[in-house]
Amino acid sequence: MILRVWGMILRFCQRSHVLLCTLFAVLARSEPLGCFKYGFSYSTMLRNVSGNPFDSADAAACQSLCVDTLTCENFAYFPVHQKCFLGGADAMLRSAQPGAVAGPKTCPAVSQACTGNPSAGFPAQHEAQAMQVWPGGEQPTSLQCWPRDTSGFPMRCLNQTATILEDTDAGWSGRCEGLRHITDLEPGETCQIRCMMAPLCSVWMEETSSDPSGALRCWNGILGDRCHQKTGGIKPSRAQRLQHGTYRVLANIAGMKLKGLVQTFNSSIYSTWGEGAKHCKFECRSFIACQFWQYSKTNGCYINDPRKGNVPYPLMTGGQSPSVTATSDSDWVAGEMIQHNCVGPMTPLPTAPPTPGVVKGFPAVQPDEGVAIPSFKEEENEHGWPFWMTALIFLAVLCCIAVLVAAAVMGYEDHQRRKDRDRGVMGAFGQGRFMHQDLMEQSSLLQGVALQPMQFAPPNLSMPWPAQRQQQTYQQFPTGPGYAGPGGYAGPGGYAGPGG
Predict the structure, then answer these.
(1) Are 150 and 7 in contact (CB under 8 A)?
(2) CA 485 from chain center: how many Å?
(3) How many whole angstroms separate alpha carbon 198 and alpha carbon 223?
(4) What sign for the dihedral angle of Cα 459, 460, 462, 464?
(5) Is 65 within 8 Å of 85 (Cβ atoms)?
(6) Is the bond leading into 53 cis (omega within 30 degrees of zero)?
(7) Which ranges in 226-377 belong to alpha helices (H)?
(8) How far apart are the C-alpha atoms of 340 and 144, rounded to whole Å?
(9) Cis peptide bond prior to 123, omega within 30° of 0
(10) Torsion over CA: 27, 29, 34, 35 (sign)
């Protein structure tokens, strides 16, 4: 129940500029960034632990069960059925159903997945070797180092970082198709701001030609289709491709050929392969779920799009499911494995007030540059206190209430769990009331096979978070002009700058 309350607060904060919401979001995270892997499980579970898998309210409670179990080294939690699987030291990380959460027994203060790069043996031939070339013994997973809310859904970067990658005012075509028509802009909210405040949105467009009366229409989207076409589609009055947050390059994958990538534009769009590779990288940077991009002189741009398929995990050249089919192909002249994150100081969004006399107009902004917005002055309440003091007092009271309620709920759940164990209603390998569900989840945990879509879920189950949340966030309209998202930060630790 408490998690639901936190989730409601964080959903409100996704659209808020208030300092209090930033504090809520920080406190709501129960695990260090990079500890949990979403959309993954482990290959084997402990067979000598009675009751495994267990009922569990959430991933944090599942991790606590692992801590209390002597031989447990990792866990996998499936929120659809609230089941917790405990694994041993020999378990290997596997792709699983969207919504699944996997993690270690204890979280390190700083995850090596968020700081490390592979050794010289990358990519390795077999699975065990492919894991060992990475610091920490596991290849980083998609969005592993991106902030999430309590349900696992990607949050907006708290440092408000956004970067303009492509702009129609700088020569970009911007004739994207497959976008969603936005009809509920709030007073003072612009089409650009709506996209900047939604981490899954990487393309926004305004146009007047599709409305019979010539009214300005707003479109937002993930990636967008055929955005580089010179004719066709709808000609925008203004459009931009955005990057949310920052990113770092994990590995150079030029010369390799990866499985599971999808083509976004062909090689004839740009006059040189260097220019084509630059815009290909922009597309991957603008979609926070994109980890890989490659450019072929013959066929053009390819990126991974989890909505259409996945690159086999981990990257390896051999085994039963090799993800790298060639390691010396001169046609694949550019490519990178990247990691999206939220690194760096608080950065103003690259927006500006409307140009005088122009409705919803924006001054020209060159790609990767920003114009600072006015700062907010500190307000005082009617008693003369600074706003931050009121916020802290309110936060302290709320935390006290949350602790008391949490203690009561945990006590009740522990009591129920003990009763269930005493009655013998659950046994190893699902010999109890949830046997059908357990077998389904074990097929993913033990064999590394993704589950079939549930009947109640929407058809798109390929994103690494619960299908219900993707459906609520961005339902694709059957007709209409794509969707996209990501960033760069110049600084230590290998973080690429805005132009990188």
Answers:
(1) yes
(2) 10
(3) 13
(4) negative
(5) no
(6) yes
(7) 273-285
(8) 9
(9) yes
(10) positive
In tens, the pLDDT along 363-400 reads 333 333 332 322 223 333 334 455 556 667 777 777 77
Tokens of 192: 């650009």
Which residues on neighbouring strands pair with residue 41, listed in sequence order?
94
Residue 44's nearest CA partner among 485, 429, 489, 463 is: 429
Cβ contacts of 57 within 8 Å, gap of 6 or more: 3, 82, 413
Phi, psi values for residue 203, rounded to 5°: -130, 130
The DSSP bridge partners found for residue 263 are: 302
Separation between Cα atoms, residue 448 and residue 93, nearest integer Å: 8
Provide the pairing of β-strand 74-78 with 180-182.
Answer: unpaired
Nearest to 151 by CA among 222, 18, 60, 24: 60
- CA-CA distance, 247 to 229, in Å (whole number)? 27
Joined tokens for residue 335? 């490519």
Q: Are 137 and 113 in contact (CB under 8 A)?
A: no
- For 230-255, the pLDDT digits (tens) are 888 889 999 999 999 999 999 999 99
What is the number of alpha carbons within 13 Å of residue 32 lying toward its C-beta?
A: 12
pTM of the model: 0.68
pLDDT at 488: 32
Do 40 and 64 meet the contact criterion of CB atoms below 8 Å apart? Answer: no
Q: Could you give the maximum distance between any two Cα atoms of the chain, in Å? A: 74
Q: CB-side exposure of 435: number of CA atoms within 13 Å? A: 5
| Alpha-carbon gap, residue 294 to 301, rounded angstroms | 6
CA atoms of 339 and 488, how far apart (whole Å): 11
Reading the block at residue 430, the tokens are: 């699902």
Residues 6+ apart with CB under 8 A from 198: 14, 156, 220, 473
Tokens of 360: 């919803």
**Lookup: tokens for 382:** 């009617």
Residue 207, strand partner residues: 217
Tell me if the bond preceding 118 is cis, omega within 30° of 0.
no
Amino acid identity of residue 274, one-letter, is G
